[in-house]
């Protein structure tokens, strides 16, 4: 019965595709942008590699993966048809012809429309959850469906999985169908909202990733978000928005932002129109959320008029007009912050007062720095201020937490390292001609000379790795954390295409890999990362995370060491520091729990599938609930006192912290695109980390214990070198 129904539905879908909206066409500027992009890649990219048949094949593969990563939409027949572009793809791209990307997207659009129709039809069918079926969650390494029937079977499994998930969450059947219908409609809406500029951006990004995984094309909107993420501020009203049922819905307001201070706009209000000053309002219902954001943002001091449906209104026909004056919104959630931790005495260790600095990225307002403004936003300046505040609190040592730091501006990594050493080389940069440039800290001032631990994870990347490697090579800090860091050893340069295309409206920018960086000890972090001096168990260690897992990653290599000093900060105590940590990790209950979670996740990843049997899933859910309850009970029964924290923010200050002048073009060392997360931007309701932070933070707690050992076992480095020879790689 199900097979017959599917055959009928497939026949209807194939006939219905002719009624789809007209296919998108390349925007007028696409030829100039694509032609310039390929010229820059062939002449300025680190590889200096022409777009040939091999790289064109990678280009096509990256584009198809970007559209259908989990292989749920395209059919194998589509892939064979797309291969017909390979013979001419390089020449077409070099000529600025991006039509292949739009032809493939048109097919993708058809397939998504068909898949959503399949999913909705499956919701109408009775589902039983008592068999032995399983579903493969990650299909990125499996073949695309061979035909329509195989794809229909995949979507039947997916809908069954989604319904089972809702059932396990005790959602009533009718409500579950409504929830999933909205979810599938939202997926369809997101695809339909993609305009020609969005398609061009995805297509050119695939071209970039054919060369390496960190080169990117940023359209006008993405470029603006990147700049916001670097300077941690924007001009708008300070509201986080989410798309819901066609409306731009207020999720939250940024504390201290214009909307928060105005007090009239509330969370869950829905925006239906946006007006600029005295201009007639523009209806934004069913408008793409990024476009709504563009309407709301604007110059400082200008007025924006929002027409909203108040969350408190019982009648959805009620409208309220709110006029707000735009102002600068500081994204303080992404700013460095600190806390003082009172570490109580134990049987074998004295009480200590320790500082923790959490640095999410290496950010700076590059424009203000170039103009000589030393009071501007800068990660180095902020960390310098926090160090002064921690020193005023008389801390015995500092942990610099880079676990969530994916990188940022290269100059900021160099400048930050200079806060902890007198002067000397920080990182070596090699260009495509094998010329080596050594970036140095020239400032003899030292902000902090006491005991230092740098805490890293698999997510710590690029600029984070430059800093951690320098501290390790100098013997200035103890690096602790996961088995290794991300492993990105390349540097990108931001090239605004408007410098060449003055007549093109908002042509965007290329983030182009132009250099590789190396430790002062001569080794690279590329693919290998930074290996901590002391490692701890981590859920990230068993996941396929890091540079070596990415397509087209550059190889590892080495250069000659750059002569540098070694502080001898550990005084030969590294072995004892490791042994003490190993004993604690082996006996600490939270690490026992963490190791249990690691073993369980490892088994899940090995199996790769999830059962669609409700009874079995209920057993698994009960086991999880029982385990969580037992852990909670054990934690409450502990007699160990909880750590006392005192939070410290950068805040307003007159402190003077030197900021290193930037070079002409901003160079970026980051493994992920920085993005604003706090003001006039989108919020993803389905976003959920698959590696959640535990209820407690055993990694940070152990890092503090390691720091206490470091304080007790060693004397603070004097800043005078004990060896003038390069440290081993």
Describe the structure.
- It is a single chain.
- This protein is α+β, with helices and mostly antiparallel strands.
- It has three domains: 2-211, no CATH class; 233-330, Roll (Pdz3 Domain), CATH 2.30.42.10; 335-411 and 451-508 and 520-665 and 695-713, 2-enoyl-CoA Hydratase, Chain A, domain 1 (Alpha-Beta Complex).
- It contains 20 helices and 25 strands.
- The strands form five sheets. Strands 2, 14, 15, 16, 19, 20 and 24 form a seven-stranded antiparallel beta sheet that branches. Strands 4, 5, 6, 7, 8, 9 and 25 form a seven-stranded mixed beta sheet that branches.
- Strand 4 and strand 5 (247-253) form a beta hairpin.
- Helix 3 (53-67) packs across helix 5 and helix 7 packs across helix 8.
- The protein is globular, with a radius of gyration of 27 Å.
- The model is unreliable at 6-20, 652-664, 672-679, 684-694 and 717-729 (pLDDT under 50).
What order do the helices and strands come in, and which of them pair?
Elements: H1 2-16, H2 30-44, H3 53-67, H4 76-82, H5 86-94, H6 99-123, E1 134-136, H7 148-168, H8 173-192, H9 196-209, E2 216-218, H10 220-231, E3 233-236, E4 239-244, E5 247-253, H11 258-262, E6 270-276, E7 282-283, H12 289-296, E8 303-309, E9 320-325, E10 327-330, E11 337-343, E12 352-358, H13 366-370, H14 379-392, E13 397-401, E14 407-409, H15 410-417, E15 424-430, E16 436-441, E17 452-456, H16 463-473, E18 478-481, E19 490-496, E20 509-518, E21 534-535, H17 574-587, H18 589-607, E22 609-611, H19 614-637, E23 644-649, E24 667-670, E25 681-682, H20 698-713
Parallel strand pairs: 4-25, 12-13, 13-17, 17-18, 18-21
Antiparallel strand pairs: 1-22, 2-20, 3-10, 4-5, 5-6, 6-7, 6-8, 8-9, 11-12, 11-23, 14-24, 15-16, 15-20, 19-20, 19-24
């Amino acid at each position: 019965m199900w097979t017959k129904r599917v055959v009928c539905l497939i026949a209807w879908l194939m006939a219905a595709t002719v009624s789809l909206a007209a296919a998108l066409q390349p925007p007028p500027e696409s030829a100039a942008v694509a032609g310039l992009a390929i010229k820059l890649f062939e002449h300025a990219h680190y590889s200096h590699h022409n777009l040939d048949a091999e790289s064109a094949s990678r280009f096509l593969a990256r584009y198809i993966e970007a559209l259908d990563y989990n292989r749920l939409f395209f059919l194998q027949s589509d892939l064979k048809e797309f291969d017909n572009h390979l013979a001419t793809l390089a020449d077409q791209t070099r000529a600025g012809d991006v039509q292949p990307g739009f032809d493939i997207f048109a097919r993708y659009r058809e397939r998504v429309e068909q898949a959503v129709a399949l999913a909705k039809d499956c919701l109408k069918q009775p589902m039983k959850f008592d068999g032995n079926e399983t579903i493969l969650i990650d299909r990125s390494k499996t073949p695309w469906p061979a035909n329509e029937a195989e794809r229909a079977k995949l979507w039947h499994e997916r809908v069954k999985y989604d319904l089972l998930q809702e059932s396990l969450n005790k959602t009533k059947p009718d409500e579950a169908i409504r929830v999933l219908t909205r979810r599938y409609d939202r997926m369809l809406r997101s695809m339909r909202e993609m305009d020609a500029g969005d398609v061009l951006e995805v297509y050119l990004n695939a071209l970039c990733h054919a060369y390496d995984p960190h080169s990117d094309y940023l359209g006008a909107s993405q470029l603006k978000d990147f700049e916001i993420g670097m300077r941690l501020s924007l001009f708008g009203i300070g509201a986080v928005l989410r798309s819901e049922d066609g409306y731009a819905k207020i999720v939250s307001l940024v504390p201290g932002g214009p909307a928060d201070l105005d007090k009239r706009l509330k969370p869950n209000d829905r925006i239906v129109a946006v007006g600029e000053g005295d201009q007639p309002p523009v209806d934004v219902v069913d408008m793409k959320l990024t476009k709504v954001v563009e309407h709301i943002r604007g110059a400082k001091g200008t007025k924006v008029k929002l027409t909203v449906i108040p969350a408190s209104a019982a009648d959805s026909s009620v409208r309220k007009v709110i006029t707000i004056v735009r102002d600068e919104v500081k994204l303080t959630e992404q700013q460095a912050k600190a806390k003082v931790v009172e570490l109580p005495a134990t049987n074998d260790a004295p009480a200590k007062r320790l500082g923790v600095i959490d640095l999410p990225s290496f950010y700076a307002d590059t424009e203000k720095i170039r103009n000589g403004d030393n009071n501007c936003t800068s990660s180095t300046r902020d960390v310098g201020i926090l160090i002064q505040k921690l020193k005023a609190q008389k801390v015995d040592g500092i942990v610099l937490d880079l676990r969530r730091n994916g990188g940022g501006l290269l100059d900021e990594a160099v400048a930050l390292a200079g806060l902890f050493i007198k002067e000397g080389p920080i990182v070596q940069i090699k260009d495509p001609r094998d010329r080596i440039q050594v970036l140095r800290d020239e400032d003899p001032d030292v902000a902090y000379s006491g005991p230092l631990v740098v805490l890293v994870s698999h997510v710590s990347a690029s600029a984070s790795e430059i800093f951690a490697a320098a501290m390790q090579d100098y013997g200035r800090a103890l690096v602790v954390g996961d088995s290794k860091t991300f492993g990105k050893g390349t540097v990108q340069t931001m090239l605004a295409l408007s410098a060449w295309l003055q007549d093109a409206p908002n042509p965007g920018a290329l983030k182009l890999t132009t250099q590789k960086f190396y430790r002062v000890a001569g080794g690279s972090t590329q693919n290998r990362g930074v290996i901590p001096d002391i490692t701890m168990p981590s859920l990230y260690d068993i996941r396929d995370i890091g540079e070596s897992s990415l397509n087209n990653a550059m190889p590892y290599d080495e250069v000659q060491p750059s002569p540098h000093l070694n502080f001898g900060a550990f005084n030969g105590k590294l072995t004892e520091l490791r042994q003490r940590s190993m004993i604690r990790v082996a006996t600490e209950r939270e690490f026992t729990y963490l190791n249990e979670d690691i073993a369980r996740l490892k088994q899940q990843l090995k199996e790769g599938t999830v059962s669609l049997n409700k009874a079995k899933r209920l057993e698994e859910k009960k086991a999880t609930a029982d385990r969580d309850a037992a852990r909670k009970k054990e934690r409450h029964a502990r007699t160990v006192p909880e750590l006392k924290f005192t939070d410290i923010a950068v805040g307003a200050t007159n402190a003077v912290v030197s900021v290193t002048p930037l070079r002409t073009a901003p160079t970026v060392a980051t493994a992920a695109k920085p993005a604003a997360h706090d003001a006039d931007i989108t919020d993803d309701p389905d976003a959920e980390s698959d590696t959640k932070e535990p209820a407690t933070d055993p990694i940070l707690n152990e890092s503090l214990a390691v720091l206490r050992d470091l304080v007790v076992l060693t004397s603070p480095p004097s800043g005078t070198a004990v060896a003038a020879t390069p440290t081993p790689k």
